Amino acid sequence: MNRIWYGGDYNPEQWPRDVWDEDVELMRRAGVTVITLGVFSWAKLEPEDGRFDFGWLDDIIDRLHSAGIRVDLATATASPPAWLALKHPETLPVTADGVRLGTGSRQQYSPSSRTYKRYAGRLVRALAERYGSHPALEAWHVNNELACHTRHDYSDESAAEFRNWLQRRYGDIETLNQAWGTAFWSQNYSSFAEVMPPRAMPTFPNPTQRLDFDRFTSDAWLGVYRAEVAILREITPDVPITTNFMGFFIGADYWSWADELDFISDDHYADPADPAAAAYAAMTRDLMRSLGRGRPWILMEQATSAVNWRTRNAAIPAGWHRALSLQAVARGADGIMQFQWRQSRAGAEKFHSAMVPHAGTDTRIFRETVKLGQELAGLADLVEARVDARVAILFDWDSWWAHEQDASPARTNYVAEVFRWYRELWDYGVLTDFVRAGEPLDDYDVVIAPAVLVLSEESRAVLAEFVHTGGHLLATYLTGVLDENLHAVLGGYPGPALRDILGVWIEEFAPPAAPSMSLGDVPNLEIDGLAAGVATGWGEVVRLDGAEVRSWFRGGILDGLPAITRHAAGSGIAWYAATAPANAAALMRELLDGASIPFESDLPIGVEWVTRGERTFVINHTDEWKWVDGVHLEPFGASVSQPPVRCSHSDER
Length: 653
What we know:
The protein is of the alpha/beta class.
């Protein structure tokens, strides 16, 4: 398309046909260009085993096509019908405690179930054969939010598939024993037949067994996607295919999924009660763009106002939805979609907002829906335009899974630690990519590695080469402590390759004692020098090996020891932070200045500044008026200028 996608999930099966006519007319009025159909329609499309009913779907697709609206057609496999579970209860997922889950919700199937995949494949083939050449078809939407509710399945079928996965990975049982460290606690295996998933057990499971089960589970869900894609590629090789990601989602390693999608899609529901919501949303947009190797992506779902799953579901203020939609476009999105078009009257999501709310069209939400559609229509020049970043953050799913495990120095919220450092860049208007551990870093001048607990030797070598060839690296506490098998690095963290470039090694972790070991709960530390003041309740005993000390701890058992260091290695610079200073702005300025990265030091707090193509987006994510470059931005207001300008003045920082 040469237009920005604008629309949302549409569920006409929930409504009588006379409502369909009104819906299509309202979509035209709102400037809708794309509608997602059929996400949860399996029971409607196949009411009985082998009997398909496509008449209603024919009708609505033809109506949309006549109105000039394109269709993102879902494969409808996200929620199997009740008759499938009744006929094949073995398709239902099983918890770690051995409980087989029931029907009446959604996503009630095991990703390892061959029976489920056989029935799903039959439906996908029927859809592809019927609609593959329909002129309204814009893309295929495979399944929906894969792994969202049933991240792990512990059934016997999954156990068998897990063993097959392990045999492919390790080849022989002794290699697995070495990788898992099974000499500990008499866990040695004599054959793969003895290996089970980490089901409920008396105490801590084997850490590498649990990590491998996380890896296997991600691959199993990817297998669900691949099975459907194989059919679609066979029948409709020229129709693009996607599935909707869920931002920073622990259940699937999206790095390993991303190249299998023709374009990245994401669902993101920002919380209006969270003061950091806009910055966190920006971080998620940057991850999606990075997963697609810089290609434009689609914001597939967001809410026009309140959602329905939080303890208290706040409505969004006027302008908030527009601000976050424009943020997504600025950060590379070629589509702004919502869940959903018309708010449901019944079911578990009846209180989830929509483009057409329960109260109808004479509402703030619908007026904003129409206005946003008009505005996006005027941004068609941005379709396929890219944005370029010179700064990257290392993000690693193995590290995330490892941080979540018990029997560790502290239960660390990995994504919160990543966001801590991302937020510093966002505040300065610095566009940031995310990179996978071990991938080339040639496109970047600055790389930040925040709490990347797991690093292979190859990944460590890539970071070392980046610095030696002129890059600027900031590595933080809890980076490079473990290898890819979760074995501890010996001789001092973070191991020889990183020790050489950082000029330090870590002798011991030293978080302050506290009843709770969650990083947000422990006492703060204090540091002097660069970024002086309070720091988070994490500290380390840092030993110098050539680095200069830029900040040091004050008080307690760490008194006088290095907190932040800097080291020249080759033609680059490597920083190490053994804690997270509350006032990290000075550190970030030195890091960016040293690499000649421009940043907006005068940008008002809460104002976002991004250039894409020939347009600059200045977005106010606060409920106060802001002045930027002579433009008076109302609360949650935004300015989209052409050609791009630089920020030269503000009234605060």
